């Protein structure tokens, strides 16, 4: 056995049997010995390091259900990062999420298992872009999706997520608002508010690939299917959906309504993760995978715990300004 290749033993198999029973319909039995060896090693080393793993909804099931201590969408992870008591926070997600965790927890060590886990949407805009927009539209407050870099958050009045974007926009005492950077999310928010939104042409490379024709094909080929779509999808896709909402919104909709058959128009792994808790629902899986999220694997997480790489840092001056925009977002959610 080497540090990078944990051993699968009968003792570990017995220990993890209840866990596998929970995830067996989304993780094939042939894969479990490989995953299980890493899961046992990661969970043991977490205790030694006093580390906690925050897992985004787009993680694969073996990461999401088997090693993550706290899970959720961007807003949930931001809140969890505030309350995390561990010395080390490992972000099983993408880089902007790790930056947000560091911004909120400046005295904690925040690690990301793979530095290449970026985000096409976050990379669509820079702090310099925001400064130019503020010059062009003086006096307009800036609302920025949390799927952005710390540099962008530092130029922002208040952040938002897809689950609270409308609430954040409505909380501002302004009729005209700069809303960044996701154009499709902004288009959807515009349908929910009378405020005028100034938008940026940023897109998520996963959600923008969905088409209205694809959704119509699902209805034709799967009787009685219910279509749930994330607001980062193009407007014509949202028009075909039965429900539009954030990742947590879609998850709660399925858990509460228990439709016989559903398609979740978002990153593919989320259907697997919800299926664990809703085995009575048939999930039709549109397999648009986020290549960045999929860089976060069990071997990468174990290596991260062993080496304490890669640490995410944020310039203190930028972090202070970015923290204010994140805290304003959290205060809106708390009704403050």
Task: Spell out the key features of this protein.
single chain, 336 residues, alpha/beta, Rossmann fold, 4-stranded parallel β-sheet, 15 helices, 12 strands, 14% strand
Can you describe this structure?
The structure is a single chain. This protein has 336 residues and is α/β, with parallel strands linked by helices. α4 packs parallel to α5 (95-104). 44% of the residues lie in helices and 14% in strands. It folds into three domains: 10-118 and 293-307, NadA-like (Rossmann fold, 3-Layer(aba) Sandwich), CATH 3.40.50; 122-203, NadA-like (Rossmann fold); 207-284, Rossmann fold. The chain contains 15 helices and twelve strands. β11 (261-265), α13 and β12 form a beta-alpha-beta unit. The N and C termini lie far apart (53 Å). A four-stranded parallel beta sheet has the order 2-1-3-4, sandwiched between helices. A four-stranded parallel beta sheet has the order 6-5-7-8, sandwiched between helices. Strands 10-9-11-12 form a four-stranded parallel beta sheet, with helices on both faces.
Topology diagram in text:
Blueprint: H1 10-23, H2 32-49, E1 51-56, H3 61-64, E2 70-72, H4 74-83, E3 88-92, H5 95-104, E4 109-111, H6 127-136, E5 142-145, H7 150-153, E6 158-160, H8 165-171, E7 176-180, H9 183-190, E8 196-199, H10 212-221, E9 226-229, H11 235-240, E10 243-244, H12 247-257, E11 261-265, H13 269-277, E12 282-284, H14 298-307, H15 316-333
Parallel strand pairs: 1-2, 1-3, 3-4, 5-6, 5-7, 7-8, 9-10, 9-11, 11-12
Helix pairs in contact: 1-2, 2-14, 4-5, 5-15
